[in-house]
């Protein structure tokens, strides 16, 4: 079992995938956009490492997922443009 990838995020306390999704979904949309950018970057980096390790099918699949996350990041620009004028800090 890999120590790098887990089913829960254990920062201060363990979260289920559903709890993690709920927490991320509750982020302000500009913060969610930043999260998506960071996630895409992480997945691209993982794909690159897998490619260097000769795991080419995994590299290709991870790069595809990273591209999809990056697409979501780009789409969040429109969401934030709609919501930003109504945001109160």
Word description of this protein:
This protein has 89 residues and is mainly alpha-helical. The chain is built from three helices and two strands; from the N terminus they run ββααα. The chain has a two-stranded antiparallel sheet with strand order 1-2. β1 and β2 form a beta hairpin. The longest helix has 28 residues. The mean pLDDT is 88.
State the share of residues found in helices, binned by percent.
55-70%
**What would the average pLDDT be, to the nearest integer?**
88
Q: Major sheet: order of its strands?
A: 1-2
Number of strand elements? 2
What distance separates the N and C termini?
43 Å
Summary tags:
89 residues, mainly alpha
SSE topology sketch:
Elements: E1 9-10, E2 14-15, H1 17-25, H2 29-52, H3 56-83
Helix pairs in contact: 2-3
Brief description of this entry?
The protein is mainly α and 89 residues long. The chain has 3 helices and 2 strands; from the N terminus they run ββααα.
């Amino acid at each position: 079992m890999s120590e790098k990838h887990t089913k829960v995020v254990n920062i201060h306390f363990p979260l289920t995938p559903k709890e993690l999704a709920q927490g991320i979904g509750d982020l302000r949309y500009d913060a969610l956009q930043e999260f998506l950018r960071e996630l895409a970057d992480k997945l691209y980096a993982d794909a690159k490492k897998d490619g260097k390790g000769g795991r080419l099918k995994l590299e290709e699949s991870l790069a595809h997922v990273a591209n999809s996350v990056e697409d979501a990041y780009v789409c969040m620009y429109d969401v934030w443009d709609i919501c930003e004028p109504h945001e109160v800090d």
